[in-house]
Amino acid sequence: MKERILKVMKAVFELENADETISQKNCEKWDSLNHLQLVIALEEEFDISFEPEEITEMKDFQTIESIIAHKKSM
Amino acid sequence: MSYFVFRNNTIEHLFGGKEVYYSGYDDISYIPEEIDTYIWFYQIPFKFDIEKLVDEVKSYENKFKLLYDRISKDKTVIVFTLKNLFPIQYTDDSFSLKEAFSHFNDRIIDMSRQYSNIKVIDIDNFFNGFADKDWVDWKFYFISQMGVNPKLTLLFKKWFAKKIDEIELQRKKCIVLDLDNTLWGGVLGEDGENGIKIGGDYPGNAFLYFQEALIELSKQGIILTICSKNNEEDVIEVWKKNPFIVLKQEYISAYRINWNNKADNIKELAQELNIGLDSFVFVDDNPTERELIKQMLPMVEVPEFPQQPYELPCFFKMLVDKYFCIYSITEEDKQKTKQYKENAQRVQEQNKFSDMEDYLKSLDIHITIQKANEFNISRIAQMTQKTNQFNLTTKRYTDADINNFISQGCDIYCISVADKFGDNGITGEIIINTEGHTANIDTLLLSCRILGKGIENAFLYKVLSILQNNGIDKVRAQYVPTLKNGQVKDFYDKIGFDLLKEEDGIKEYILDLKDKEFEIKSYYNIEVK
């Protein structure tokens, strides 16, 4: 799952590399517009739908991973 | 290309970042100047109070006018129509909101007819491709105020890029059609002139639809040609005899019906019609032929052909959308098939005369030279976009640029040419800017349709003598080489200009007008308006 999330992030933010430390703070391309594009791309990739509360929390890789893991296990 | 978008909602996702700037929400007070194209993209707000909403929508019209008056007329203004993305209707007879935004849409369409720098884009054309439930995603709306579903972003960007291309006029000029199993069902050589399937029951009716559609395309100015492996006599016979074939020879500007390879045939067609291979679309049901053209002539567009005749309507629509759609067409475009045919007649006529002068005399050529005005500006801009071969500098201009030149005091003349075979319409232009007593030819171009009759010389001589009468004593000119304009490399030398210098193929010329006399042959009847 890690790899899939990173793949989506690289595509959305147009990055060559991305690792698990990526967050809104250290990634310049991760602005509010791209944030929504990331959400949409992840929803598509994992066939899930995030709630607005989750979307506001999804500001770094770790949180995103745990939210997706939680949703998938439900 | 830089854009500035006037908007009343979050739409950054639709237009992206690079060189696109945005107004504040519903703010028309600030108009940055260093922008190529302005965009008006307003959306109907999601509000329940219909009366207030109607008032708000009504105010857009005035707002837009206020804004438009302050935008320089040499800039393009793109206006999107208004659309209600989430209509809630309590009674079937409440039309007030619909009336309000329809009125806005009608008004901007009116304005675009009046002012050539306003271009309207119909937003329905985009949304009609999706189910209405997908137009708005309320989750994202409440998080971000995006009225248009962000899931449609990528598709919107693609669609918008195509609309921009259409406004800047990049369509294909010519379609090359196969015959057997393309324009009719079956094979003429095997099934015979009455055995092929055209008209009547399926599949003949599907092919008939395709033929009728192609006739419409030719009326829109697209040149129809045929390239088929058949016996020419058989095809001429079937054109004459089979009453169900509606796409008759008269719609076909040129054809190659023989057993030669199709790549060579298409090259010949390009030469005969004087248009570049990159303006061709090749339609053939045979995958081997398509593959051959793809490999031999990669600049030619080769769409896949449908497997089943009933798919032809959708195939045709795809052809129009992808290759032949433009923002608007001019009268000259509509005349094209006729003109290309007349040209073919002229070529035949030419063969009858051994002496070129006698031939030209017999043509009864009438040349009208006209200053640029509001009726021909679109055509003048269009020619700079489309003319490749007889084009000395190949500078591409928009309507707005031409308007701008006029307001800067440039002399812009265009010419129309008629002869005994017909009227070619406006087919050439010259743009001249003047400093003191020196004139500079910025642009000189002529459509290939009128070449071969010495008109280019007569036109330039006439314009030079006008300049002379206006007190100009020196004329500068340039030749800038492109892949396609090699034929005019020595044009100015032949006219009598002096070559000043040549660098990287770019040639700079000067001509001293003092005491020069220009002899224009008497068989050109020239009128200056």
CATH class of the largest domain in chain B: Alpha Beta
Q: Given the C-alpha coordinates, what overall shape of chain B results?
A: flat
Largest interface summary: A-B, 9 and 12 residues
CATH architecture of the largest domain in chain B: 3-Layer(aba) Sandwich
Strand content of chain B: 15-25%
Number of domains of chain A: 1
Radius of gyration of chain A: 11 Å
How far the N terminus sits from the C terminus of chain A, by CA atoms, comes to 16 Å
- Sheet having the most strands of chain A: none
CATH H-tier superfamily of the largest domain in chain B: Gcn5-related N-acetyltransferase (GNAT)
Inertia-based shape of chain A = globular
Low-confidence stretches of chain A: none
The CATH architecture term of chain A is Orthogonal Bundle
Classification by helices and strands of chain B: alpha/beta
Q: How many extended strands of chain A?
A: 0
Briefly note the structural class of the backbone of chain A. Answer: mainly alpha
The low-confidence runs of chain B, each spanning 5 or more residues with pLDDT under 50, are none
Largest sheet of chain B: 8 strands, mixed
Query: In CATH terms, what is the fold-level topology of the largest domain in chain B?
Result: Aminopeptidase
Q: Within the CATH hierarchy, at the fold level, what is the topology of chain A? A: Non-ribosomal Peptide Synthetase Peptidyl Carrier Protein, Chain A
Summarize it.
The complex is a heterodimer of chains A (74) and B (529). Chain A is an all-alpha fold.
Could you characterize what this model shows?
The complex is a heterodimer of chains A (74) and B (529). Chain A is an all-alpha fold and 74 residues long. In chain A, 62% of the residues lie in helices and 0% in strands. Chain A is built from 4 helices and no strands. With 529 residues, chain B is α/β, with parallel strands linked by helices. Helices cover 38% and strands 20% of the residues of chain B. In chain B, the strands form 3 sheets. Chain B has an 8-stranded mixed β-sheet with strand order 15-16-14-13-12-11-10-17, with helices on both faces. A 5-stranded parallel β-sheet of chain B has the order 2-1-3-4-5. A 4-stranded parallel β-sheet of chain B has the order 8-7-6-9, with helices on both faces. Chain A binds chain B through residues 32-33, 36-37, 40, 49, 52, 55-56, and chain B through 12-13, 17, 139-140, 142-144, 146, 150-151, 153.
